[in-house]
Amino acid sequence: MLNPLITGTAAAIAAALLGVGWQLLTRHGVTTTLGPLDLAWLRYGIPALVLLPLVWRVGLRPRGVPGWRLAVLVAGGGLPFGLLVVGGAQFAPAAHMGVFMAGTIPVFTAVACRVLLGEPVPPARWCGLALICIGVGWLGAFAWSQGLSTWRGDLLFILAALAWTAYTLAFRGCGLSPWQAAAVINAWSCLGLLVLLPLAWIHGGAPRLFTAPWQDVAAQALGQGVLAGLMGIIAYMAAVARLGSARAALSSALVPPLTALGAAWLLGEPAGAQTWAAVAHVAAGIVLASGAVRWPGR
User: Fold this and answer.
1) For residues 11 and 22, what is the distance between their CA atoms, to the nearest angstrom?
2) pLDDT tens digit sequence for 41-56
3) 168: pLDDT confidence band, cut at 50, 70 and 90?
4) Which residue, among 8, 166, 14, 5, has the nearest Cα to 76 in the 3D structure?
């Protein structure tokens, strides 16, 4: 039988790599042949179909889940979150996604848990959160001073991080398993896309899924729906089960640097010195903010 540490580490790394791949595919999709709603259909439609039996069991309105909590779950982890991400990817390079979204989620989550739930934040975590803020502020100030238009995407990434934080807090105590929550969120997201479809068709014409090269559609279906929408959940749950949430979260530190490297190699978006400085601060901050690192004697 394999050592849980080995399998958990492999699962955590896989989850990080899947997150990096999703970010790169999203940036590539919205800057080439597909639009935000096209990616959203693939991201939420495929998992919704696969997880439809779970929706049939628990229902669109799961028993015991208040309406407000369900709304926050869907908004924070479903279609509104996804549209913020793909919208941001239209304006900012992929490396910024790793800094402004992956970086600020730990900050917002820690602050929200401290303010709303009274959870203590150890000194090492505060230092990590400070490093993340320095990295995010550094890159944001540089982009603003240079008059770069990426600030629109950066702002949307930060709003997406806020949405994901709300989802994280709403999921606690909701009584649903991760798979049940994913099934319900994806189902509601598809219903939301159906509502938006007529408006999108009027203003932008037919979905590009019907006109884009089939290779692009197939790649995005695999990346958005299967790898990010399903395999990412499996990998992260396996990592948490074997390593615990703190050590599993350490793998998130890989996302900013690997996204920046992938963007330079695959998308032709080389990162400058300012971006790499921000990436270094954010990655180091995520390690400390995960809670897996403690001061000596603590």
Assistant:
1) 16
2) 999 999 999 999 999 9
3) confident
4) 166
- Token pair 């790394």: residue: 13
> Which sign, positive or negative, has the C-alpha torsion 8, 13, 16, 17?
negative
- Region 204-220: what's the mean pLDDT? 85
CA quadruple 219, 153, 162, 193: dihedral sign:
negative
CB atoms within 10 A of CB 270: 13
On average, the pLDDT of the chain sits at 88
At 27, the amino acid letter reads: R
Nearest to 110 by CA among 80, 83, 133: 133
Hey, what are 281's tokens?
């601060």
Kindly state the tokens that stand for 46: 């495929």
149-19-58 Cα angle (round to 5) = 115
Distance CA 182, CA 255 (A): 22
Name the token pair of 172.
């606690």
Tokens representing residue 146 in the block: 């240079």
Alpha-carbon gap, residue 84 to 90, rounded angstroms: 10
Angle 232-243/178-204 helices, nearest 10 degrees? 150
